[in-house]
Amino acid sequence: MKDTNQSIEILVIEDNLGDYLLVEDYLFEKFSTSKIRHCKSFSESAELAAEHSVFSVILLDLVLLDFQKEELVEKVQAIFKDTPIVVLTGYTDLNLARSLIAEGVSDFLIKDEINPELLYRTIVYAIERENFIIGLENSKNTYQNLFNFSPQPMWLYDNDSLAFLDVNEAAIHKYGYSKDEFLKMTLRDIRPKSEIELLDKSLGDRADVKKSFYAGIFQHLLKSGEIINVEIYSRFIDYNSLKATLVLANDITEKLQYINVIENQNDKLRKIAWSQSHETRAPLARFMGLLSLLQIDTNASEETKFLFQQLKVSANELDDIIRRMVMESATINLKSD
What residue ranges define each of the domains in the chain, with the CATH number in brackets? Predict the structure, then answer.
């Protein structure tokens, strides 16, 4: 593999000068632009950490004068936090290697087997692995923040048992249960008895079509006994090796009540429109017809003729007003989004 221009900082903790010089040569062969720091003991590395604790990778001899093996690794991890550690040792103890890797060491190399290529691959893998872990941790933190700080109730439940796996503060506040109480419950515990059959059917339908996303409107039961209407949005996810579902619940009880009020108003408006077009307009039409049939005596006074003419004008105006009211009422249909 060719030399890389990747600039990284490498800390080598090694008390044998000959071993260090050999490792240094290997490093410069593959990381020619990198900065290498050398400490001969843990105490010296601890002093260095006080002024500079950020390194891309640490190459650690497993046996130093002041500390050795597991105790040494534990102390180095404590002061250099998330920096990946590659152990360099002359011991071929597989049990020790497994133990250290289980404790977070990135790799375990035998000094007699090291060469530039192996060292390069090991360091690159250790750095990339650590970056990947940090990325996962950041993603997890982002998800956790979105979940915890959502103003809408959210929860996770196990697809098999329907048990709650996690709930956010909004759900705790809305439903009235503490988090400990929630984690001892299942989805069935927040459904009215009349809704259990519908719950089982919706879960079964979703499993049949294998649909990862689902939305619907259901009734939920609060701890207080109050029943609310909720709009559910959910999606399948993997959670700690379990098949789970992430749910967002939006209380639409007031919205539905508002829609009912609007629908009642619409119904009243339709009745008013019908009344205007049938009950009021019918007698007016008859009245206008009678006016047309009436003949005013040509010998009638001018005042009588004027009054008769004004009566016809007023009847026509009233007819026009009613006609407009009917047309405008027919266009009214209030709805709630």
Answer: 9-145 (3.40.50.2300), 151-251 (3.30.450.20), 258-331 (1.10.287)
